[in-house]
Amino acid sequence: MESGKKRRLKRIFRDDNRTVIVPMDHGVTVGPVMGLIDMQVIVNKLLLGGVDAVLLNRGVAKSVDTGNAGLIVHLSGSTKHCPDPNNKVQICSVEDAVRVGADAVSVHINVGAKQEDRMLAMLGNVACKCDDYGMPLLTMMYPRGPSIKDQHAVDLVAHAARLGAELGADVIKTNYTGDAESFKEVVNGCHMPVIIAGGPKVETTREVLQMVSGSLKAGGAGISIGRNVFQHENPTKMVKALSALVHRGSSVSEALKILGESE
Questions:
Q1: 4-21 per-position pLDDT tens digit
Q2: Residue 201: what pLDDT?
Q3: Looking at the DSSP assignment, which residues form a beta bridge with residue 107?
Q4: What pLDDT, in 10s, does the model give residues 226-248?
Q5: Strand pairing partners for 54?
Q6: Of 19, 31, 78, 221, which sees the most CB atoms within 10 A?
Q7: Predicted structure pTM score
Q8: 149 flagged as catalytic
Q9: Long-range own/partner contacts, residues 90-94 (CB < 8 A, 24 or more apart)
Q10: Is the sign of the CA dihedral 8, 10, 13, 17 positive or negative?
């Protein structure tokens, strides 16, 4: 990997080669949801928790101070009102991300969607441009479309993750498959770091922590969890708890104590 990418990735991944990222690109898809009304306020809370990086759309990235956290600028999107919300189109360029001081960029690809071919072409073009600029590329690779019956099936997730790596991504974000044993197949089948998405808001914090713990046991490189962090009643403590799992190898019980929650 060229030196530019290595230097930028060091602002996102710690010395243990793991990372805690909080994505907050949801304003494009669903609008100003709870937790993302005042972007500077939520970013400040995450910084207090020790977040490694935040993921934002360009417009927010231009106006928000991300402190010492890495900045990932998201390059693709669609809204929930679109006839085909799974069709992600490019809405920002690598050059735009460079201008706002990004440490990495990201694109969202839905494998199995009707417009998969266009999204893959976008990914390939962005990957080439990232190589030109020494810009790390994170790809959100999800099995999602008319023919996808289970978005967490190990064979589908493993294929999606490998696809992202094959087309030039430096970091792969994908779904957790439900247990450490099956997720290990995803990690082993992908020659790039694999981090997990948080998915929809869950009912209990324990569910999130157990998912993260399992992914790490399988060799995962960290997390990129949004709603289960920025919509938590205490985002600062949630980041601290997740960081304890990712960077210190804490148990789920120890992480719950950070949050002040009992067994």
A1: 999 999 999 999 999 999
A2: 74
A3: 139
A4: 999 999 999 999 999 999 999 99
A5: 22, 71
A6: 19
A7: 0.97
A8: no
A9: 90/122, 90/126, 91/28, 91/57, 92/57, 92/58, 93/129, 94/126, 94/129, 94/130, 94/132, 94/133, 94/135
A10: positive
Active site residue: 45, 129, 173, 237, which one? 173
Across-strand partners of 71? 54
In CATH, what number does 3-258 get? 3.20.20.70
- Token duo for residue 50: 């020790």
Written as six digits, the tokens of 239 are 């980041």
- Candidate list 5, 129, 142, 176, residue with the active-site label: 142
Instruction: Report how far residue 203's alpha carbon sits from residue 185's, in angstroms, rounded to the nearest whole number.
Output: 28
In this predicted model, what pLDDT tens digit does every residue of 110-162 receive, in sequence order?
999 999 999 999 999 999 999 999 999 999 999 999 989 999 999 999 999 99
> What pLDDT score does 1 carry?
63
Residue type, 156: L
In the chain, what are the domain boundaries? 3-258
Does 142 participate in catalysis according to the annotation?
yes
Q: How far is CA 115 from CA 59, 119, 156, in A?
A: 26, 6, 17
- Check if 176 is active-site: no
Q: Do the bridges between strand 53-57 and strand 76-77 make them parallel or antiparallel, or are there none, so unpaired?
A: unpaired
258: tokens are 């950070």
Look up tokens 């969890």; give the residue. Answer: 225
